Amino acid sequence: MDIIEPYLPALFFLSATLVLIALSIIDFRTWILPDWLNLTLGLLGIAFHFSVDFIFMPPSGLIFGALTGAGILYVIRLGGNYYYKQDTLGLGDVKLLGAAGLWLGVEGVVMAMTVGAFAGLVHGILVAVIRGIREKSSPNLHRLMIPAGPGFCVGIACVGLWQYAEFVME
What we know:
Elements: H1 8-30, H2 35-51, H3 59-84, H4 91-135, H5 149-163, H6 165-169
Helix pairs in contact: 1-2, 1-5, 2-4, 3-4, 4-5
């Protein structure tokens, strides 16, 4: 057990990276972020912090991070759904940011949302430009629909690598 113990946090971190990749691929293909993968990401976050004796943030930081991530995205979802009269963000996206909050805390999850939204914007512009080229027309961003999960996964991964850079470098 003593040989395995120092490697557990690294195993949790690597597993979370693989979960983010899987979530991105599935969302690209199906527009669904499976609950069991979001739950897995969240549980890996709790296990990671537990395995490092909460040196990066206290347990309350995880809880407030999850509530902030899910809460902000849920409010954005409600506003978007009201304005557009259709689903604008799925509940899987809300759960994804809740799970990310267990890893990143309040400040980290807000940064991940920001970076993820920017990644989604870049993705959307690229999709519109490619469609415009294929259809021999100008790019059209009006009502362009792309899955939000992959952008958020990029944001979570970038902020996670930045936030835990010292741990990753070890």
